[in-house]
Specification:
The chain is an alpha+beta fold and about 375 residues long. It is built from 11 helices and 19 strands. It has helices at about 20-35, 40-50, 75-80, 105-115, 125-130, 155-165, 180-185, 190, 215-220, 225-230, 300-305, and strands at about 70-75, 95, 170, 195-200, 205-210, 235-240, 245-250, 255-260, 265-270, 275-280, 290, 310-315, 315-320, 325-330, 335-340, 345-350, 355-360, 365-370, 375-380. The strands form 3 sheets. An 8-stranded antiparallel sheet has the order 5-4-3-10-9-8-7-6. Strands 12-13-14-15-16-17-18-19 form an 8-stranded antiparallel beta barrel. Helix 1 packs antiparallel against helix 2 (about 40-50). It is globular.
């Protein structure tokens, strides 16, 4: 059985004195004392979980309300939206929860200086110097861009081309427009034009297409885009890789970008305004994969993985790789084998009709990437 819920951040909340909230607080106190669970996760679970026919699962039955995000905001909304919309310039939030960015103290001090020390009349540019992602906005020529300092992944030109051959990168809000500009678009087709499906071509070329031309991008796009479509507002371009940075030209504008997993975080060179893209193709090329053969069982990485001693998926779920290519998981029986195109340290696992590419880092650790969406987990031997 699979259940999916929205999470609620418990950085600031008000609790009324009722029997339902008392029951929830007691449950949270018990879980904090007896389980290895993050308090944020437990808070969301107890507030949103329905009662199931499982031992110990009694719904809290609390009523939940959400305060205005513009008045009680977090720094994600503050630095990505409020600072980029001129009509919000004189808005004064009741509180700002500094929870989203790593530079918590510095951003908190900048917010405090603007609204308290300068009584809301501080230097707006001092706030806008902070990026909506990490770090500060930087010009493209300074080796930065997008303010994206942590979590950068190596950008390999051949990999970017290979990924693009299996699916597009879905760019949001391209070219960058403020919320007011998007709202003022004449119709849904105009707003849909801010989405574009981009593929990186060999030789530094870029193919920019409409979302409706790419089935996987169309499935990931908002409902309004799927209903009306719309031609992209930029055409053509070029790209190159310099170290960990992607230099990108789309239409008449230059961007610099960094990659984190399936995401590209781009900054327009002229003003540092950010654009986000997500890879909507398959993360793996499965054409050469095959189940482990007897001749392969006693060689290479197979001897490291196979055996009676189990592995643990995310440190919790037991996995066993058998020498004949069978795979035992808590959910479904599966198969595993070699991924020859990736090298001798890579294998694949297939269970529940889902493919995973596994990098065998050493005798006790495997790094797994789910091919469908690029989700990464660690598998460890116990």
């Amino acid at each position: 059985r699979m259940l999916r819920f929205w999470a609620r951040n418990s950085g600031q909340f008000y609790v009324r004195s009722t029997s339902a909230t008392l029951r929830m607080m007691r449950t949270l106190a018990r879980r904090m004392a007896s389980e290895q669970v993050w308090d944020q996760s437990a808070y969301s679970q107890e507030g949103l979980w329905p009662a199931l026919g499982l031992k110990g699962r009694v719904g809290s039955r609390v009523s939940l309300r959400v305060l205005s995000y513009a008045c009680f905001c977090n720094t994600k909304w503050f630095f990505r939206h409020l600072l980029n919309e001129p009509t919000w310039r004189h808005h004064r939030p009741v509180s700002v929860h500094t929870n989203y960015h790593p530079e918590k103290q510095q951003r908190m001090q900048a917010i405090f200086n603007h609204y308290h020390v300068a009584e809301g009349k501080g230097d707006w540019a001092a706030l806008r110097r902070w990026s909506g992602t990490e770090g500060s906005r930087r010009a493209c020529g300074g080796g930065g861009g997008g303010g994206f300092r942590g979590g950068r992944e190596q950008l390999l030109p051949d990999e970017m081309v290979e990924l693009s051959s299996r699916g597009p990168w879905l760019f949001h809000n391209l070219p960058p427009r403020t919320p007011a500009q998007l709202l003022a678009a004449p119709d849904a087709a105009g707003r849909a034009g801010a989405f574009a499906a981009v593929r990186f071509l060999p030789g530094g070329g870029v193919a920019v297409g409409s979302v409706e031309e790419e089935p996987r991008a169309l499935a990931a796009a908002p409902a309004g885009v799927r209903a009306r479509g719309g031609a992209p507002l930029v055409h053509g371009g070029s790209w190159s890789v310099e170290g960990q940075a992607l230099r990108l030209r789309l239409g008449e504008e230059d961007y610099t970008a960094f990659r984190r997993g399936r995401a590209l975080i781009c900054a327009r060179c002229s003003d540092g305004v950010e654009v986000f893209a997500r890879y909507e193709g398959l993360a793996c090329n499965t054409s050469g994969w095959h189940r482990l053969r007897p001749s392969e069982a006693q060689s290479g990485v197979a001897t490291t993985v196979a055996g009676a001693k189990a592995w643990r998926w995310q440190g919790r779920h037991d996995f066993t790789f058998h020498a004949d290519g069978r795979l035992d998981t808590p959910w479904h029986k599966g198969v595993w084998g070699v991924a020859p195109e990736r090298g001798e340290r890579f294998i694949f696992a297939r269970f529940a009709n889902i493919d995973h590419l596994l990098h065998v880092a050493d005798k006790s650790r495997i790094e797994s990437t789910r091919c469908e969406d690029g989700d990464k987990v660690t598998v460890s031997r116990w």
